[in-house]
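Reading group handout, session on sequence-to-structure problems. Before we discuss, look at one worked example. The prompt was deliberately terse, the way you'd type it at a terminal:

> structure Transposase IS3/IS911

The input record follows.
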Amino acid sequence: MTKNKDLKSRLVIGEKRDGRCEYDEGARDELIRMCLKPGVSIARTAMEHDVNPNQLRKWITRYHQQRMTQPQQNSASGITDGVPIDTPTPVRPSVASETPAFIPVVTAPLAPPAVPQGPSQSLPLMVDRTSCAIAEWRRI
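And the output record:
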C-alpha cells in the first residue's frame, strides 16, 4: 500500500496553464507496467491513482506501440554485453527462385442449367386470407 501511495504522489509533477496535469514519465511507465500484470483492473488502478481510465488506456496503447517500433537488442542483433559482434548478413534468395505472391486461379466453364423436358408442373399458389378479404371488399 505504501508503494501505491508513493507512486500516486510521484505521478503528478505539475499543472499546465489550461489545468491539465503534467506526469512524471518514470512514474507513468511504472503505473503502465503495473496495469499490464494479469488480473489487474486498469480502471480501478487509474482511479486509485487519480488518473482518468481513458487516459491510462491511451498511455498503455502508446507504450505498446513504442515497444513494437523499437528494435530488439539481443544477441541476434549482433550486440552482446554492449560489444558489437560481426555477424554475416543473411543472403536473400534470388527473385527468380521465389514463388509468386499471387497464383492464378483457373475455373472450369459452368454447364448450362438443365431444362425440364416434360410438361411443366405448376406450383400451387399460396394466398393469404386477408388479401382475399380485401380484394372481395373492394369489389363491393
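Points for discussion. First: The longest helix spans residues 53-69. Second: Strands lie at 12-15, 21-23, 79-80, 83-84.
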